[in-house]
Each structure stands twice: as structure tokens, then as C-alpha cells.
Amino acid sequence: MFTKILIANRGEIACRVIQTARKMGIQTVAVYSDADKDARHVELADEAVHIGPAPSRDSYLQADKIIAAAKQTGAQAIHPGYGFLSENPGFAKRVEEEGLVFIGPKHYSIAAMGDKIESKKLAGAAGVNCIPGVNDAIETAEKAVEIARGIGYPVMIKASAGGGGKGLRVAFNDKEALEGFTSCRNEARNSFGDDRVFIEKFVEEPRHIEIQLIGDSHGNVIYLNERECSIQRRHQKVIEEAPSPFISEATRKAMGEQAVALAKAVKYESAGTVEFVVGKDQSFYFLEMNTRLQVEHPVTECITGLDLVELMIRVAAGEKLPLAQKDVKREGWAIECRINAEDPFRNFLPSTGRLVRFQPPRQDMFAAETAQLFGVRVDTGVQDGGEIPMFYDSMIAKLIVHGTDRLDAIAKMREALNSFVIRGVSSNIPFQAALLAHPKFVAGDFNTGFIAENYAQGFRAEDVPHDDAGFLVALAAYVNRRLLGRAAGISGQLPGHGVTVAEEFVVVGLGEAGKNIHEAVTVRDFQAESGSSAIETGGKRYEICSRWHLGGARIRGTVNGQPFAAQVERGVGRNPLAIRIAHNGTRLDTLVLSPRAARLHALMPYKAPPDMSRFVLSPMPGLLVEVAVQPGQKVQAGERVAVIEAMKMENVLFATADGVVGKVLAAKGESLSVDQPIVEFA
């Protein structure tokens, strides 16, 4: 067994590998860029080596520097994690040539599965179901139309070297096939330097289901059940679960056996995933093989009780798999939510900056301790006070739950999301909460088009209706009563002018454009020692009891005897008296006032925000990489104005109307904040 390994990655997955290595008594070496010098994975590792500037092309993609770091520290093996160099056959081969062990599949297996056209040919030869189509590169748009007609519409046009949703089009007729082929080819050439394009049948109401497998160097390959990954946004997974609520036992077995056959055909060693697209009739077709550990591997660990990272390390060290196919368990139900630094209310634009507060929910499952099941687990590469840099992907953490069945897992996940406190950057937690509460998700009635169909106009606050809005009002009144209790107890108050606490209040729900909602509330039976109070509003009574400490962002307790977890924040929306309550994805900003103060507040005129229509504003924090205009220039609507880059994402800003540029207020290379003016029109 190895005594020291290097992790050629960062963030969550680097921390995950370190945890298993520590359990196995293996020392670890971290690598880090300038942006990650204070990162959690650097702190957790036994040693750390600096490998370059912040951009990944200058650090985490530098194979020479990573191999040199391994040799310098005496590491015997390299674990690539996922992303970066994990599926680079050249890197895997270099590692082997340098006398090190690559903790992953052999370079020839990676190469065989890395090319989408060649991998489909291999899959077909191995007896794996393949989607009807033409897997040879297509030369002209006219030929593409002819092929599409032969397959039958709808068809999918795909770049051979594509990934991440790029180089992909769906065509329902000849016109769309002609245009789709041309644009797909251009996009592939520009993004990947490879303009080969192929066409295949588009499966209607498709599900994205993948089979986790693992093989050793002794010819053994087994599959570890499936994962349901159909909840996607722009071809990026949002929620994953295991098992799938859709497929039958017969389909599971057939998919698993075909995945194993493909793995054996390419002499696969280590952990890998075979992805399938599954039609509404449970017909399934090979999509691709990911020759690495997947982001969503924890849900498989939950239902099988296996540590996949440990198995990868043991296989790389030459050991045989410790179990056969008949030994693979499928126990309970697991769900994973990807918690990303993005603002769902601003079209999911990246959100970077410092984590002012990072308080994950209470954990009773932990990475590398896979025998502990039926609870909550958080895999993360960040910590309280850490930085979310603009140079890498937006993942903050993976939130994993394991329940006795699917409904139990959904309930656990909703409660865990309520308890997950993130401040300083925006996160997609409200969106995750909305998805989990959606009736179709709860029923298991969805496919890969679920998010596009249900949130076609983007995500808005009203997309998350609370099942009991009165509880949010009652909780705001409860928090206010606790605050007043403290204020009333302060010594030294002038006689006759001290804080008195009444029972009657009005909770003013602060709406957009001054459209506020007033809710009368009565607060009685307050008991400071037990932290209990009875609140009446809207004809309902809420008995709330909590040990919440003033200033805490998370509030736990019971309401009418039932446990709850919510979040509370004071001084939001530039109003120091405002109280924000967040629960089940719904957010309520309030002022809790006396009846008289509420009447006076209603008379206050609404102060509209300043008119910023003459300005081009930065929609997200990021790096200004281009300013395409200059003062005095005439600009037409739709014309390119500026380009901002953050988290591997480029955002092009266009003029919304014709005009003349008055001032350029930001310079190329400048780091921008949200809503920072870039250009002012005259």
C-alpha cells in the first residue's frame, strides 16, 4: 500500500480524498495556486506545494508542475479527483512513465472513452445499446439533413469533443438540422479545436441515468447500482439521487451488465461511470463513459456502504476488489444537492467573495466513514471566513442525505437546506428548496427537461410559495419579542422612559416598490427561561419554543410541538430594523411594529431607487476582460459593450437601446462588484 499520495486537485474533492487517505494511514500532499494558499484542502493535507498563479491553465492544468511536486515530496501515486487533468490520457501516461501510480484507469482506457465517436463504436461492439445514428464525422450540412431524415426527427447534433453542454443542438425539421449542424460545428471548432460532428436519434422525455462501476487489475468489474441525474440546468446536474425512482429491477440489471461489458472491453480499472439516456418506455442507450470519480459519488456510497475513494486507492495499489456483484447492497435512499455560489434570482449568475458565515447543517454522516448511514453529510472545500474565488467552478459544498425511503430522504434534505447558513455570497439553496417541494419531483415524475419546462422564465421568489405563510409571520413576531425582551432588561433606563413590551404588533411584509402587506399579530405567554411564546395571526395560533441566541443566523425549535429549522437575519435591505425570515426556500423581509407605528409607516411615501437606465451595470462580481466601446461612440441596441468573466463563465453585456457613450467608468482588468457601473450613456 502507498505511504504517501498527491492530490492533483482542489476544493471539495481534494478534501474528500484526503479524508479517506487519513483513514487508511496514508500521508497526503496538496497542490495549490495563488488563489488557494489559505484553502481548506491545503490545511488538511500533511504537505502542500505551490504550483502557480490562480488561473487553472497556469496551475492545476500544469502536468509538469504536478509531477515534479509528487517527486519532490516522495509521493508514490497521484489521485486526480474530477475535472482538470482527471480524464487526460496524456497526463495519466506521463504519471506512469515517471514511475508513479495514477489512481484511476489506465491511459488507454481513458483515451478509448474520451472520444465520443470512437467510444460509441466500442460500445456497439461490446453489445451495449447505442442510439440510432451516424457515428462517423459528417462533412456537410446537406449530408447532415439527409442523415437526419433517414434516422427520423427529432435528432441530436453533437460535437465529438463536446462537453458541458457545448456543441449540442436538437433539430425537429430540415431547417433546424441545417442551421444546427453549421452552428454546432463552429462552436466545436472554437471551443475544442475539433469540428467533428455526428448525429443521433433524440430520445423524447429522456432521463439521465448512470451506472457506477469499479474494476481491478485482475479482470474483475462490478456495478454499484444506478444514480438518477435528470434534474439538470443547462446540461449541468443540480440534484442526484440513488436509486432511480423510475427504472425497474430488470432495467437496472440490464444497464449494469452492459456497463460492465463495456468496461471489460476497454480493460477498465478503477472507478468509472457509464451514462445512459433512458426513454419513457425504459429503453436505454449509451451516452458516454466518465473515466473518473463523479461529483455525485456520495449517493452511491450511502446506499452501498462502500468508500469509493478507498476502493480506487486499493485497486491502484494492485489489490483485488473485496466484493463480488452478489455482495453489492442497495439500502435506503440517498439524495445530493449541489450548493453553488450563484444567485438564482439573477439568472444564476456567479457570486464570488468572502464567506462571512458558513454554517453547514448538523452532520451525522461523514466522508470516508461510509458505515454511518441514514443521516446528513456535507462534503466541502471551504470554511467559515474562506474565499470563493472567481477562477474556478461555483461549487461551495455537496449536501447529501440518506433516508429509509425516498420521501424520508426528501424530508431530511428540506430540513438540512433550512439549516444551511451561507452569508457573504449568494447560493442556490432557495432554488434547491423549490425543486424538492415541487409536486412532480416528489412524485418522481420528471425528465431532463424538468427545470427548463417549469422555470422557463427564470427563477423568482414567487416560485417558492410557502405551505404556511402564517408561520413566517409568527416567527418574525417571535424573534422581535425576544429582541424586545433583551432591550427591556437593560439596566440604567430613565424612569418612565424604559422599553415596555406590549402584546399587540403588526408584521409589515416588505414588498417590491413599496407594496407592503400588514399582518396583525398578538404575542402572549412569553417565557424567557424556556424561550417559548404563543403567537396568534390570521386566525391561527403558533406555539413557538426555541433556545435561539440573539444574533444567531440559524433558529431551531418547535412550533405546535413539531420541530423546525429556519434562518433569521437583522438589518437587511439597508434597513437596520428589518428582520428577514427564511424557511423552505421562502424569504420574508419584515418590520415588526406597534399598531400605531405601522399606521404611520403606511403613510410614508415610497422612495424609488435611482434611475440607472443610462448605465451598463455589472450583473455579477467578476473580472472585466473587455470594454468594447469608448466615449463618444454611437452604439445600437444589441451591440456588444463589455465582457465579464467569473467561475469559468463568460458574460457578454449588450446595449439595450441606441445611444452615445458618455463615459467609460471601469477599465479592462478591473475586478467588479455586483451592479457596479461600467459604461454611462450620454
Could you explain the architecture of this structure?
The chain has 682 residues and is an alpha+beta fold. It folds into five domains: 100 residues, Rossmann fold (3-Layer(aba) Sandwich), CATH 3.40.50; 69 residues, ATP-grasp fold, A domain (Dna Ligase, domain 1, 2-Layer Sandwich), CATH 3.30.1490; 247 residues, D-amino Acid Aminotransferase, Chain A, domain 1 (2-Layer Sandwich); 126 residues, Glycoprotein, Type 4 Pilin, CATH 3.30.700.30; 67 residues, RNA polymerase II/Efflux pump adaptor protein, barrel-sandwich hybrid domain (OB fold (Dihydrolipoamide Acetyltransferase, E2P)), CATH 2.40.50. 27% of the residues lie in helices and 32% in strands. The strands form nine sheets. It has an eight-stranded antiparallel beta sheet, with helices on both faces. It has an eight-stranded antiparallel β-barrel with strand order 24-25-26-27-28-29-30-31. A five-stranded parallel beta sheet has the order 3-2-1-4-5. α7 packs across α8 and α12 packs antiparallel against α13. It is globular, with a radius of gyration of 28 Å. The mean pLDDT is 93.
